[in-house]
Amino acid sequence: MTEIINFIGNHQEIIFFIILSVFVGVEVIGGVPTVLHTPLMSGANAIHGVVIVGAIIVMLNADPGDYLALTLGFLAVVLGTLNVVGGFVVTDRMLEMFKKK
Amino acid sequence: MQPEFLYSLKTIAYIIASATFIIGLKRMGNAKTARSGNLLAAAGMTLAIIASIFIHVNKTADGYETVETSGFIYTLIFAAIAIGTIIGWVTAKKVQMTKMPELVSMFNGMGGACAALIGLMEFHHNLDNTGALLAIILGLIIGSVSFSGSVIAFLKLNGTMNQPIRLPSYNIINTLVMIGVLAFGAHMVFSGTHSTTLLYLLFASALVYGILFTIPIGGADMPVVISLLNSFTGLAAAFGGFLYDNKVMLTGGILVGSAGTLLTLVMCKAMNRPLSNVIFGAFGGNAASGSGPDVKGSIKDLSVADSAVLLNYSKKVVIVPGYGLAVAQAQHIIHELEELLEERGVEVKYAIHPVAGRMPGHMNVLLAESNVDYGKLVEMEDINPEFDQTDVVLVVGANDVVNPAAKTDPSSPIYGMPILEVENAKHIIVNKRSMNAGYAGIDNLLFYDPKTSMLFGDAKKVLTELVAELKTM
After folding, report:
1. Within this chain, do residues B23 and B87 fall inside the same structural domain, yes or no?
2. Does the ipTM surpass 0.85?
3. Which of the listed residues B248, B281, B314 is the one where a domain comes to its end?
4. Do B266 and A37 count as a contact with CB atoms less than 8 A apart?
5. Could you tell me which of A100, A31, A88, A71 has the C-alpha nearest to residue B40?
6. Residue B400 designated active-site
7. A52 and A89 together in one domain
8. pLDDT confidence of B48, banded at 50, 70, 90?
9. Which of B306, B400, B449, B458 is catalytic?
10. Which chain A residues contact residue B361 at CB under 8 A?
11. Beta carbons of B227 and A53 less than 8 Å apart
12. What's the average model confidence in pLDDT over B209-217?
């Protein structure tokens, strides 16, 4: 129990950060018309591609001789890029169609 | 340059990127600003990625350390990004708009897999730090569930896996497996184990849980599932951000996690079903069998020629497009029909149910693709009062969203779902492939209404014939 409480104390900045971000996320989406749900979901999908930053960090810190880590890291960067690039491009294609005729 | 300065530059890049995510999402909530919002977020993402690659300075207890990385690793990173960019770009550009939901699902799965791999690699580097291990294991579990769940959602949407597969008492099995995976995860975090085998075993069991979680859910509910898995991946990315104390991953991840959860709930609300109902299943399961109207009247069949006459001599026609139209890829031919009728002085509108198509808003995207005027797409609340002045309603591949049982039959599984009140129109023409029940597995009283005529056949084929017939008149 003491450990948990201390953990919270030691990580308070990040915990405040998380709480506020949750509310920002909810607030930002509020009142969106149904029409835009699909593009919005797709856009949000692209944004969580930010996980690629983690994959890049793993790669940068990897030991150049550790081929298992390098292979997994390489794969992670490919997958993360797919998520980011594919996500943004497909969202753009959807939204392009909404422009005023 | 000073390591401190470089570190600050990276931080500024991350701050800007985080702001673009928030502003981008906000702008995506409005049709006018949506496209620029998406591009803004994409620009922010590019900035964050560039900063992560080129500024490799870490903050340590006693100052800043620049980490030397070999050229070989940089080559690998660039190669991986190039491969991902080419494949992602080409697939996203080439995919047909009707296939778009499964593509979103696939990209979501990729993100989940990326998060899971990070967990696999980081585990052994953080054995002495319980907080970090917790973030790693949770990221690994959630990422894996999101990955395998998204793959199943993809297979269901593209028709490879049509029927929901339900093991007997799957709810109990799934819950037990979930508890098992979580307990296993807790063991990995708190027992101080170093076992690689156990780590991979946890990875595998989380993948299995993702499959079990998604497999009983029907194809029409996949949008909700994708949206939910989307927020899972956001959460997995946020755990990565916690692990590296990386604020841009945290902002992006949490933003998507919370926005995705809200979006999931909004989608459920449009179908008037609680989320638990989607996940634990009601349609086609025990709850639905036995209910539904028993009344059988007679079904009136209508020929293409008669339908053409009926449409041609109407003043006002409302088209109700549904899932069947999307599957048959009939969005272009329906637009041709609409233009032909408009030329002859018939007023034509489209009635868009919030959950029409394969995703909320999907129908709008499809019709926009075939150049239908945005102003002709009318949302449910606005079109419902207009049905009593409508001569003909043409229902194409929609079923449950026009089922009057939602209003009249409290025992119906769709009771309470807002519907398009097409039964108020003078004539209703329903195009369906067969008399099979809709997704909810219940009969539709509308088809037995004396004002309703059925026009059987594949949407694209029937509409093409209808257009040809109209042209001869």
Report:
1. yes
2. yes
3. B281
4. yes
5. A88
6. yes
7. yes
8. very high
9. B400
10. 34-39
11. no
12. 89
